[in-house]
Amino acid sequence: MEEVKYDNKSTSDIMSEKSKSRTGGPAAKRVKAGGRGVPLRKIEYKFDASYRFGERPVEKVDDPSDFHPQYFLRTHSKNNDPADVQTQIWQCSFEPNPEKAHSMTNVVATCGGSSVCFINVDDGEVVLKYNRSTKMATAGENLYAQVWTTLPLDSMGLETMNILAAAGARSTVLLIHPEVGVCYQMFRTVPNKAAAVVCALLFHPKKAAWLFCGHEDGQIQLWDVGIPALPRYDTTPVHLLTIPAVARDVYNLTFSCTHDLLIAGCDGGLFGWKIDMQKIETNDRLERTEFLLPEVDGNGSVLDSVCMLRDDLLAAKCALHGQIYIFSISRSLKKRTMAKSGSQFETQVTDDLMLKLKWSNTDNYYMNMGVDPISCILVCGDDKGALWVYNVADYVTGKVSSPLTEGSQLPPIEPVKILDWPELEDAEVEKARKLRLDTYDIVVDKCAVSPGGHHIVAVTSNNMVCIWKRGKEEDGDN
């Protein structure tokens, strides 16, 4: 177990105090599982008893374009260099609120370089930082992916703990419990291949301890990371399944609870697998569907971003297409047919099924969208540091007829606002005599939107965490 620095103070005492009152953990009985050749836990192949499906109604906001820059932070610097403008930050995501379903806290996690940061968006404070570049990491072990889950510590989920999984180079997965400031578990998904890279992570929304890991070679692994037995955090990750590669890099993973569908955006296509618990238990092949998207100017399907706008509405972005697609999974599945191979399915997602959003014509890749399913605000950055903000609530609810509600086809929708990169005074960069931040392309690698669209967080290729706040700028805002 590694200790995380919290406001430059040790958290050992905090961990002991908070853990004493907690109980629970994996069953004592151990069985062989996962083919790893070590004593492992008993696995339950059923959904968590505490899981309840629900989706809040769409709540349109009145001023979705009215954002102002609040905090721009350099938190992932290598060797704590305040003028580091080279470390790339790859991911950002808001912490789920365990006390209120379909809500988030005011803490956003970011990962990049060799560190994970936890930042309060209200005051810009870095409340916790985990740095991988200590005794156990090598210089090349960058972190590219992260995901939150809320683990139930009892059968009904009345007592819970939020953990963050992060992963990247050398296929190393870290499990962090930020409340007490510990990284309590590390394991490798590909122990015999040093060059293996985890590009995407996703916890099963109905099975909180099951972690999907998408790899650079196209394979997707499923692991049960277990419920740690506190206060020692005893648990053993168990490999359950490997989905063979059908394309190259797995850039993004998302999940539709309605359809029990794991969806992967890959370098080479958009794919969905029906997650059948019985087939996973018996190690049978999962049913697969390929979603065939149209080509634009001869550019194929390099899916560098996918996310769920609503549980049945998928947003997908293909590199070099200059637009973002939103379509209903239900309607597209109705049109699927058996693939030529005769073993899996495919469906053509035609123009009449899609709402299209006009986006940048950049030839850069890997700019990830962020969405808020409640307000239906979607945000995607570009390679100039700008954020493209879309408000699609009226199209989702049917107030404006569109293919999302089986209405007529529409021309590409313009963003309601493009938030340009602001002019920043950067004393540290000037002091170090480095080039200005905006001298080169500023690629926005990922965006996250808070529930209700109150904050947008964006992370960039030049080591910046950018926090934008909706509403008029007040005195005291940075």
What do you see in this structure?
The protein is 6% helix and 40% strand. It contains 5 helices and 33 strands. It has helices spanning 12-20, 277-282, 329-334, 393-397, 427-431; strands at residues 2-3, 30-31, 40-41, 67-73, 89-96, 104-112, 115-120, 126-131, 143-152, 160-168, 172-177, 182-188, 198-204, 207-215, 220-224, 238-243, 250-256, 261-266, 269-274, 288-292, 303-310, 313-318, 323-328, 337-338, 345-348, 354-358, 370-372, 377-381, 387-391, 417-419, 444-449, 455-460, 465-470. Strand 21 (303-310) and strand 22 (313-318) form a beta hairpin. It is globular.
What is this structure, in a nutshell?
By secondary structure, this protein is mainly beta. The protein is built from five helices and 33 strands.
Low-confidence stretches: 2-39
Strand fraction: 35-45%
Radius of gyration: 22 Å
> How would you write the strand order of the largest sheet?
17-18-19-20-25-24
Query: What structural class is derived from the secondary structure elements?
Result: mainly beta
Tally of helical segments:
5
The count of DSSP E runs of length 2 or more, i.e. the number of strands, is 33
